[in-house]
Amino acid sequence: MSDFSTLIARAEALLARLEAVLPQPPAAPDWxxxxxxxxxxxxxxxxxxxxxxxxxxxxxxxxxxxxxxxxRLVRNTAQFVAGRPANNVLLTGARGTGKSSLIKACLNxxxxxxxxxxxxxxxxxxxxxxxxxxxxxxxERFIIYCDDLSFDEGESGYKALKSILDGTIAQASDNVLIxxxxxxxxxxPEQMKDNLGARHDDNGELHPGEAIEEKISLxxxxxxxxxxxxxxxxxxxxxxxxxxxxxxxxxxxxxAARQPALVWALERGSRSxxxxxxxxxxxxxxxxxxxxxxxxxxxxxxxxxDHV
Length: 308
Hints:
10 helices; alpha/beta; 9 strands; single chain
């Protein structure tokens, strides 16, 4: 073999090894396998879309005391599924109040009209352009869902999400909508020193500094903000009653559970829907009557697909 042929063979072998470790676009999954998918990056640098085999069966009717938020998200999702203009959505506010659950309930509500969901972890947001390109020609409508989203200074996923929302030279596909939940309104930590860059003019008008402007710029690219608030005692007890009925507890027992439910919330330091669900599970589990099979619940914790 000539020196030239040897060189070519060695170059091809080197390229083959490089291709094995370079990031690869995500492979198209079996779209008929599920209505929800998770994006997972593999050790080789490539990514894969994994079908979610058991999608949380939440329905919009299951979510109580969030009627205003529900109405806004359902209206926006209906516009999106119908092919009309719709906004990317940021759901923010108190933990455990139903942000994630509302997105999952909307998925189940509109799945028969072609709505699909892809859950992406914050660390994988740098692959967002590849994901958008993968689904851009599909007939379905896709929600790309980021749960419990927040960034520290300098994280790479921040820039990728910012560009996809509004800023890249390429137009985003009209069959993709970004929905994110967060306990932080502006998604980045806000510090007292950021205010040192603020100034006011001769008329007293306040102008934020560059640090504040940068932190606000990402959340402003979500066209629809939906805020959630801590539940009152009445709202918390109403949600407790809803989930106790779900477990087959009778009305007399539900009335008797009011005081234990309040003590449970006091011990947890929170009157959230998630706390109400946890109390209902505990109460029903200790009841003599057999409980109904539990449905996966809404929430906004690290579990990913979580209620109320």
